[in-house]
């Protein structure tokens, strides 16, 4: 009798463990990122872009990929135009004396900035060199809700002028505290204002504003970022 009781207890324990193991994971606990794959447009090594190959639904996936494809097509047009211009100047005496001056470059790359909870942030870097001391990089950010495939703009997080003003003031105060990164002359920020056109990407702690070269700091600062924490974004 004791053996049977012991066996039944052990069986119940095993069944309980199996029951817990096969229980579905609650939706709120799922953080598995959607899959993003790198491609080369028209097999051109200099033109890399992302494509979403795993999303909550095909409709959302297609909407996102359509926007990403549109960007790389625009990059290809600029790349082609620059390569044609380079061919035209090859016979110039200056090019024969200093070949490197006439060697133009155009490259598109991207960074996956955020990929959690069905939200996706992509940052494109379009670099162009046409001679001179250094090239120029233009950044473009895209933020998506992967359940709908819709783009998220700053208006999504800052629904009123008051909210924009609050974030603008926070950014100005942050830049003032970091003169090693941003311009130190106050006149440089006379017309500064965070708008719906300001580039940004999502982060665990809020949103990160990111600026073009020379926009808020010298060339050596690259593309400075400012984290706008959740505490600032929350309405009061």
Give the tags.
alpha+beta; three-stranded antiparallel sheet; single chain; 236 residues; 9 strands
Describe this structure in words.
The protein has 236 residues and is of the alpha+beta class. 35% of the residues lie in helices and 25% in strands. The chain is built from six helices and nine strands. The protein has helices spanning 2-21, 58-89, 93-97, 154-157, 161-177, 230-233, and strands at 36-40, 48-52, 105-116, 119-129, 136-145, 150-151, 200-203, 206-210, 225-229. The strands form three sheets. Strands 3-4-5-6 form a four-stranded antiparallel β-sheet, with helices on one face. A three-stranded antiparallel β-sheet has the order 7-8-9. A two-stranded antiparallel ribbon has the order 1-2. The model is unreliable at 17-30 (pLDDT under 50).
